[in-house]
Structure formats: structure tokens, C-alpha cells
TrEMBL record:
This is Porin. InterPro entries: Porin_dom_sf. The keyword Signal applies. It comes from the Bacteria. It comes from Alteromonas marina. Keywords: Signal.
Length: 274
């Protein structure tokens, strides 16, 4: 598994900044079916920033009169379709996703990302497809399993010789989610996931909602690298605040622990539902 591509993709699965017109909205309870997101991300050691945008279409109304605004689509079991684009130093990344709640018990989530690198001596492109099936043991607790498919294509031309190569791999995963957030909008949202591969990845997060609008998250991931490579330990924090039921701003910071690699990631995000 390409851990750098995975980190970039995970950063992109959170895209968000919005136009100035959002400040004209009212504070009345809103029932929304659309969400626009944009983001700016700074990777330590890179001169360029990542900029991206994403659109989500909810297949039913997301109500803002109860629960926690950030995770109300999950709490209310609202299915959705999404698409996004991001760019970083000549790298174009396209993203499509869907989440379907078949009833109060089952969830099917499919996320796909395609990135293209244009370089002086050739081109590279990567495709990632995640498929997850979730089962709700209760209103609070979800468990599930899935697969991650990754494919890489290389076309190299050094002016004298040219060749192409491709490789792919499929990795199984298991995940769980437990939330104590109720109609009052306060409580915990806990997640954990394990990806089995040549490079095993164990990750988890804990987010606490102080109110329907304000939450803080801590996250941690451990990558068990192959022999000859250092294991990777990553920790992160995130703050999410909703000005009202439609407009939110958030910031996050992620760093590698016990590593000499410059790989800190900081992001500033926002979203608007309408």
C-alpha cells in the first residue's frame, strides 16, 4: 500500500472552504440537501499548497433541529453522492463517492479517487477504490468490513528509451464506529479501522461534541512497515465549529511521531449546506 497516496487521499476525503456569500444566510432551522466544500492544505517540505473543492448531494433532507451538525448525515442515515477535485504541484486528483443507507441496519459506501502526475520523463496515474459494508448493531454502534483496490500505471521516457508498467493490489479492512451523540448534540464519536496488507495500518479517532456546533477530535494511526523500513506513527488534532446549521469552519494538524521525515500536514477548511 502507498502510505503517502493514502494520506493524501484521506486528507482529500475531508475537503472544505466556502465563498463569501455564505455569510448572508439566516439562523433558522434548515433542512438541506446540498453541501459545497473547499480546502487549503499545507504539507511540510513542499513549496506548493493543495487546493480542492467537493460537492455532496444528499438524497434526503438533512435536518438541523437536533443532533450534531457535522455528523447529522450519519446520525439521520441520509444517503449521498459526492464528487471532488484537488490540485497540488501539477498533480490532479479527481474523487467520486457514494454512501447508501439501505435501511436502519445496512450501509454501503464506495469511494474512488484518480490522480495523475505529469513529469518531465513520463507520466504516472493512480486509482484507489474503497468499498465498505456496514452493519448497525444498534443506533449507536456500527461494525463493518471492506476492500481497498489500488492500481498504479507508469509511462517513462528518458529521451532514449521508453517503457510502461502497471501494478495493483487489493487490501481487506475492518472498521467500527460508536457514537453517544443524541438529539442534544453532545457526546462522543469514536472510530477505528484496520487495513491488512504488506503495510498494515491501524487507525482510530475520538471526537467530542461540546455542543451541536463545536467539536474537537484526536486521531492516531500506526503503520507496520516491511522489514528495512521504519514503522510510521501519526497523531492529529482537529477543531470543527459551525457558525450556524449551514456554515462551518475547521482546522486540523497532523504530525509523524518519532520520525525524522518532514511530513506535518496543516489544513484550513469550511463547508456550506443549502
Amino acid at each position: 500500500m502507498n502510505t503517502n497516496t493514502n494520506k493524501l487521499k484521506t486528507t482529500l476525503t475531508s475537503l472544505s472552504i466556502i465563498t463569501a456569500s455564505v455569510f448572508a444566510m439566516t439562523a433558522a432551522h434548515a433542512a438541506t440537501q446540498n453541501e459545497v466544500q473547499v480546502t487549503a492544505v499545507d504539507f511540510e517540505g513542499l513549496n506548493d499548497k493543495l487546493y480542492g473543492a467537493r460537492y455532496v448531494r444528499y438524497l434526503d433532507e438533512v435536518s438541523g433541529n437536533s443532533g450534531a451538525y457535522l455528523i447529522n448525515p450519519y446520525l439521520q442515515r441520509v444517503s449521498s453522492l459526492s464528487g471532488g477535485y484537488a490540485t497540488l504541484d501539477g498533480i490532479d486528483v479527481f474523487n467520486l463517492g457514494s454512501t447508501f443507507y439501505l435501511d436502519d441496519t445496512w450501509m454501503l459506501a464506495i469511494e474512488g479517487a484518480h490522480s495523475k502526475f505529469d513529469e518531465d520523463f513520463g507520466d504516472e496515474d493512480y486509482t484507489n477504490i474503497d468499498v465498505k459494508v456496514g452493519f448497525n448493531l444498534s443506533r449507536q454502534w456500527q461494525i463493518g468490513a471492506g476492500l481497498i483496490y489500488q492500481r498504479a500505471n507508469y509511462e517513462i521516457n528518458d529521451g532514449t528509451n521508453s517503457y510502461s508498467e502497471s501494478e495493483n493490489e487489493t487490501s481487506p479492512l475492518v472498521f467500527t464506529r460508536y457514537t453517544t451523540v443524541g438529539n442534544g448534540g453532545t457526546g462522543w464519536d469514536l472510530t477505528a479501522q484496520y487495513i491488512a496488507d504488506d503495510v498494515d495500518v491501524l487507525s482510530g479517532s475520538a471526537r467530542y461534541f461540546f455542543s451541536p456546533a463545536l467539536s474537537v477530535q484526536g486521531s492516531y494511526s500506526y503503520t507496520n512497515a516491511p522489514d528495512g523500513f521504519d514503522n510510521l506513527k501519526t497523531a492529529g488534532v482537529a477543531l470543527d465549529y459551525w457558525v450556524n446549521e449551514q456554515f462551518s469552519v475547521s482546522a486540523s494538524y497532523e504530525t509523524d511521531i518519532d520520525s525524522d521525515i518532514e511530513s506535518d500536514v496543516a489544513s484550513l477548511t469550511a463547508s456550506y449546506r443549502f
